[in-house]
Amino acid sequence: MIRRVLIANRGEIAVRIIRSCRDMNIEMVTVYSEADRDSLFASLSTESVCVGPAKASDSYMNQNNIIAAALKTGCDAIHPGYGFLSENPEFAGRVAEQGLIFIGPGADAIRELGNKSAAKQLARASGVPVIPGSDGIVGSVEEAREVANRIGYPVLIKAASGGGGRGMRRADSGSGLTAAFAEAKAEAIAAFGSGDLYVEKLILNPRHIEVQLIADRHGNIVCLGERECSVQRRSQKILEEAPSKAVNAALRAKLTGYAVKVAETARYVNAGTVEFVLAPDGEVYFIEMNTRLQVEHPVTETITGIDIVREQIRVASGMELSVTQADVSYSGHAIECRLCAEDPENNFMPSCGTIDFLHLPGGFGVRVDSAIFPGIVITPYYDSMLAKIIAHGKTRGEALYRMRRALEELIVRGVKTNLGQLYMILYNREFITGSYDTGILEKSGIREYGID
Ligand code: ADP
Ligand code: MG
To answer: Distance, CA 207 to ligand 1 centroid (Å)?
Structure first.
């Protein structure tokens, strides 16, 4: 069994992992950058080591320093969280070479599924429907044009190594394709160091539905149901819920079957998420698999009662999952809101400063995952997410009311946030009825809305 874990991340997810370690009586070492010296996660952990300057590439992505810190502090495993090194196959491989356990899938699975174009081919080979598009990477804009002419516009040009909604551009016609191709390529090179692109049909008015699964080394794969993540801005999720209003038992069984097929083909171990889009005509298509713990995992934990980080650690230790598929049942409904330090009046650009007053919500059915406290300085170096607020109810309506109550209680002063926008979503007609798609924010006109 793992006894001491190094957490190679920061912010709320570092705190989240610390909590499961404590529940399991496992010691934890955190790493921090010079900008995070006064962070909550560093003070909550058994031990904490500085791994470099503020810039993420010099600290949280500094493989040498992180591995050295793990060895020096006597850790036997590394949890990468999400972002940073979590989907880096080279890192996973190096961790294993040093005799440490990487709490996640093997380097080969990360490599194969991390390339979204290759992952699509793997899904298709497993009998899972994928969106019509190019057969792998397109080498040139001419090749992209041929594909677009074959499948029909609008199309989406996507970066094979993309993530976080970046490296994607829509093209509505042949004339728009050249610019879309160039922009996607430039953004992909800047963000991911690879300009490999593929083309797929743009599904109009889709819903984003994903399936959480976890697999152990003994051949067990357990699915923990779906999450609805269609409330997105710039293709980035900002509110998630489980279960999805658009998924009935038959569709759930179908999605679960597809997710298991992908995991089996990839010989997947540990927690992972298979993402789909659901078209208005009811067809579902695989889009990608995220080979890590996902930001929105708490909604699944809330309705299943299963601690996903705990299962990750058990599986990484070589143990069997603590639950079988037959043990999994769903209780009520959960909604998560991502509170971000952003300026709604300035195109949701990151907002920096000192949080000089803070009141986080609580009460029945409310969970908050965060690492902020009064006095913390929000710097421009990392992700702008400040906290996740999760509300649980016996019904979707009860969860919605509790989330409204939670946001009413939430007070953050010193930085601008998207709180006003989140609040508006909870009063939006389409959201209330549950009949929304990924265009909800654009259609509702609540894209820009701030509360001071
Ligand atoms: P990322 O790696 O950035 O998460 P995804 O491939 O998961 O990229 O796509 C991000 C979001 O973009 C999806 O959640 C969905 O809303 C939208 N999207 C992706 N592909 C398509 C598509 N072919 N048609 C319509 N929407 C899409
Ligand atoms: Mg995605």
So the answer is: 10
